[in-house]
Design brief:
The complex is a heterodimer.
Chain A: H1 2-11, H2 15-42, H3 44-48, E1 53-58, E2 66-67, H4 70-75, E3 80-88, E4 102-105, H5 107-113, E5 117-118, H6 121-129, E6 133-137, H7 138-144, E7 151-156, E8 161-173, E9 183-186, H8 187-197, E10 204-205, E11 207-212, H9 218-228, E12 236-240, H10 241-251, H11 253-284, H12 286-294, H13 299-335, H14 347-374, H15 377-382
Parallel strand pairs in A: 4-9, 6-8
Antiparallel strand pairs in A: 1-11, 1-12, 2-10, 3-4, 3-11, 5-8, 6-9, 7-8
Chain B: E1 13-26, E2 29-42, E3 46-50, H1 57-64, E4 72-77, E5 80-81, H2 87-97, E6 98-101, H3 113-118, H4 128-141, H5 157-169, E7 175-179, H6 187-203, E8 207-211, H7 215-218, E9 223-228, E10 231-236
The chains are: A alpha+beta, B alpha/beta.
């Protein structure tokens, strides 16, 4: 207890210097936490993906379609439980800056396959009945102030024209990892309109979503689906939902890697600042450490004083940084909801913040502690006066 | 807590210095500081070491206190040859056997007078209550009972030195070493400190070895030894 009291008193001997160092660590931990949260947000789709769902797309590229007729052949493959299908619609609401993901899907099979989208039964029934109906995530509906029964018009980009939809349901995510910013409507509505305006594009699917009976047979089902359509007019590429999501992330892997590097650089910079503070502190107190040694205290006691001080400063900064990360992430997430529908501070991020602060405190204290424990008493006492 | 002078104690050598030499390296040069020094200090003695700057008196004091090591020779204090002790054993030995009084008091600024005096007791097995009793007694001995919650910055130089003296005697060490204990004090405070050290020597029988430039301070000692260029040149009793 005595040593803790002494460490705490020592830590605040130069109040301005200590508080500035704490401020630096707070900002570094905040920046580190936000950058790690950006990375988590990038991987949110992967984290939310299910191991019992597969995605089948055209083997050449996602931009090429597959025939609607494949759904019946996929259903016949052993281990397949549910088959759903959809198209990326790419519609724009009023202005391009209002971006959100919008899909044409087969409603019943889609909601069966994605039980994490919680829709009240009455809204679900309304949606199933209304071909022009659509369902929006809670956050998306809140963002634009949509109410049930409102008509929303999207301007088609991939599928030209003005498309009117009526809001029939607002879904909530089962947990906070579920994206609540998606817009989906009846694939039949899209297909019927395509039949009238460009028949060549009718009955074409962007991707199939497949539910398997057991996750451990997913690999066999993947192989069997692709084997079924080998040498056909549109060969398929099937992968787990996780692999599919990872594929999207891989396209921007350089950015993710850059953010990861920057997050670690922030910690290295603050480590240098903290090490400088501790080096200054230890240099100023060499005489006092010599007194401790003179009185019979060992090197380990002096090392404990220095490491303790370093860790107290870094952990106080860490605590402030973590406390600020939550409101900052909330504000950040609201501003960037278009790009990051899920922007939650993960528990792992907090653990990483704490680990980073511990590393900063330990590394910063190492050299001053090593130097102070080795100094000769007579040399240390000479520094006084 | 502390021994009084007894007839058996008086005259017995508590410190035996034999053929001690010490030199320092300055760049590529080796500068001899002490050369083949030998003498004894009796138990309960009050010795003043004098000499010009660079004469080796502070070096000798550091060697006697076990905070510097000899090049050759031996120093036996209370029957223990401290030149043979390891760094760790020497630290333990210092904690028990040596009380230090420095020119600049060398108190820990973030600790109160009480905390500073208590510091050496943290290395003992005394309980918190026992430590408190010892500290209160030591501070009352130096007339600072009413200042025990003051920090060094809130005390005058003389008061700080009295705290340092209380810290030096708190473990009832075998010897007290004082390096220019009045060097940073005004005349009145210096007289007060020297009076206190004299009392410790006369009334409690503490063996004191004091380095000083001040002839007035040296007069308070029973023996004065003059060092010059690493050798004793004169001895007064």
């Amino acid at each position: 207890m005595y040593i803790l009291k002494l460490i705490f008193k020592n830590a605040f001997r130069h109040k301005l210097r200590t508080w500035l160092t704490i401020l630096g660590i707070t900002i570094a931990i905040l920046a580190f936490g936000l950058l790690r949260t950006v990375i988590s947000a990038w991987y949110a789709g992967v984290d939310a993906s299910s191991s019992s769902r597969l995605i089948t797309r055209n083997a050449i590229s996602i931009i090429f379609t597959l025939p609607l007729s494949y759904k019946d052949r996929i259903r016949q493959i052993e281990g397949v439980k549910v088959v759903s299908w959809g198209n990326w619609f790419g519609g724009i609401y009023i202005d391009e800056k209002n971006f959100f993901a919008n899909f044409a899907v087969d409603p019943k099979s889609y909601l069966e396959l994605y039980p994490e989208l919680i829709l009240p039964p009455d809204q679900k029934a309304f949606f199933f009945r209304d071909r022009k109906g659509f369902v929006a995530g809670r956050k998306l509906a809140d963002r634009f102030g949509w109410k049930l029964g409102d008509t929303v018009t999207l301007r088609g980009t991939i599928f030209p024209g003005q498309w009117d939809f009526v809001l029939r349901g607002v879904y909530k995510g089962r947990d906070k990892t579920v994206d609540e910013t998606t817009f989906f409507f009846h694939w039949d509505y899209l297909n019927e309109k395509m039949k009238k305006t460009s028949p060549m594009r009718a009955d074409q699917i962007g991707f199939y979503m497949i539910g398997v009976t057991k996750p451990d047979i997913a690999a066999d089902v993947v192989v069997n689906i692709d084997k079924t359509f080998r040498n056909s007019i549109a060969e398929t590429l099937t992968e787990t939902e996780k692999a599919f999501q990872m594929g999207w992330i891989a396209m921007s892997q350089a950015i993710v890697t850059a953010i990861q590097l920057v997050s670690f650089v922030v910690i290295i910079i603050i480590m240098a600042v903290m090490a400088n503070t501790m080096a200054m502190t230890a240099r100023e107190r060499i005489g006092e450490y010599a007194i401790f040694k003179t009185l019979g205290f060992g090197g380990s006691y002096i090392a404990a004083l220095i490491f303790g001080e370093s860790l107290i400063i870094s952990m106080i900064g860490c605590a402030f940084g973590i406390a600020l990360t939550f409101p900052a992430a909330k504000a950040f997430g609201q501003e960037l909801s278009t790009f990051f529908p899920i922007f939650n501070v993960a528990t792992e991020t907090i653990y990483m913040d704490i680990a980073a602060a511990l590393v900063v405190g330990t590394v910063a204290g190492f050299f001053p502690a090593w130097r102070s424990t080795r100094i000769r008493i007579a040399d240390g006492l000479r520094r006084i006066g | 807590m502390m021994d009084a002078v007894t007839p058996e104690k008086a005259g017995r050598a508590i410190v035996e210095i034999r053929n001690v030499s010490k030199s320092y390296r300055r760049g590529s040069q080796i500068v001899p500081v002490l050369e083949h020094i030998s003498f004894d200090i009796a138990d309960g003695e009050f010795l003043a070491l004098m000499g010009p700057s660079g004469s080796g008196k502070s070096t000798l004091l550091n060697l006697l206190a076990g905070i510097d090591s000899v090049d050759s020779g031996s120093i036996t204090i209370g029957g223990v040859d401290i030149t043979l002790l390891s760094e760790t054993d020497l630290a333990r030995w210092r904690a028990v056997n040596v009380g230090f009084i420095f020119q600049f008091y060398n108190l820990i600024p973030v600790l109160t007078a009480f905390g500073n005096v208590e510091l050496p007791l943290l290395l003992t097995k005394l309980s918190k209550k026992e430590r408190r009793e010892h500290v209160e007694m030591a501070l009352s001995m130096v007339n600072l009972s009413d200042r025990m919650d003051h920090y060094p910055g809130q005390l005058s130089g003389g008061q700080q030195q009295r705290v340092a003296i209380a810290r030096a005697v708190i473990t009832d060490p075998t010897i007290l070493v004082a390096d220019e204990p009045t060097g940073d004090l005004d005349r009145a405070s210096a007289a007060e400190i020297l009076g206190l050290m004299g009392r410790l020597n006369r009334e409690i029988g503490k063996t004191i070895i004091m380095v000083t430039h001040d002839a007035r301070a040296a007069e308070k000692a029973r023996i004065i030894k003059q060092l010059d260029k690493g050798v004793f040149i004169d001895v007064h009793s």
